[in-house]
Specification:
Mean pLDDT is about 90; it is low at about 1-15. The chain has helices at about 15-20, 180-185, 200-205; strands at about 25-30, 35, 50, 55-60, 70-75, 80, 90-95, 100, 115-120, 125, 145, 155, 170-175, 195. The strands form four sheets. A four-stranded parallel sheet has the order 1-3-5-7, with no helix packed on it. The chain is mostly beta strands and about 210 residues long. The longest helix has 9 residues, at about 15-20.
């Protein structure tokens, strides 16, 4: 028996509840769940899809080790406290209202993740005193799009370590009006050669 307690708020489907308890759940598509607790889906190796239209928050390691997870849609989440660490099949991430990506290793080792689009994000990191490897070892991540007209603050240069972006073959796309500011900003300047204007690459950054 695991030492962790697995809980989510308001699951009304017995099949979903049974699958969660037995760690055999393959899909979570629910409009009633409002929050997801620590370790709720930790190690659910059969889980492929998570779509929770009204969940506003989820906690530490809630999806860590879901190695079959491909698609995540959490449209109401504004602050990312949860973790998708070692979700090696993850490809599709929909976080349209995320403002603050503050988990230290949020997407670490998500090796299938090629693109991350964070249209509302204005902060990445966990403060100036802590390293942040949010996308560390995302070995396929070559596109990161930050669409907000407010510049996204970056706490630590290690966010994109060991990705195509840090190796010079991937790019960060930002609004053209902020291009020079990003290239000159503390920490972002590390990636100055990899920062491009969204408007110049509609084939990549188009919705």
């Amino acid at each position: 028996m695991s030492k962790y307690t697995y809980t989510v708020d308001v699951i009304g489907d017995d099949a979903v509840t049974d699958g969660l308890i037995m760690r055999t759940i393959t899909e979570l598509v629910d409009e009633h769940i409002t929050s997801i607790a620590d370790y709720a889906f930790y190690g659910c190796s059969a889980l492929k899809t998570v779509i929770c239209t009204n969940a506003t928050g989820f906690r530490s390691d809630s999806f860590t080790g879901c190695t079959a997870l491909e698609t995540v849609s959490l449209p109401q989440v504004r602050y990312l406290d949860g973790v998708f660490r070692n979700c090696t099949a993850l490809k599709n991430v929909d976080l349209p209202n995320l403002r603050d990506l503050r988990k230290q290793y949020a997407f670490e080792n998500c090796t299938s993740l090629e693109r991350i689009d964070l249209p509302a994000c204005t902060h990445i990191g966990v403060g100036k005193s802590y390293g942040c490897g949010a996308f560390h070892s995302c070995s396929s991540l070559s596109v990161a799009i930050l669409r907000s007209t407010t510049m996204c603050e970056l706490d630590d240069v290690s966010v994109f370590s060991d990705t195509p972006i840090s190796k010079g073959t991937g790019y960060i796309y930002v609004p053209s009006a902020l291009l020079d500011a990003y290239k000159a900003a503390t920490n972002w300047s590390t990636y100055a050669n990899q920062i491009r204007a969204i408007e110049d690459y509609p084939e990549i950054c188009g919705q």
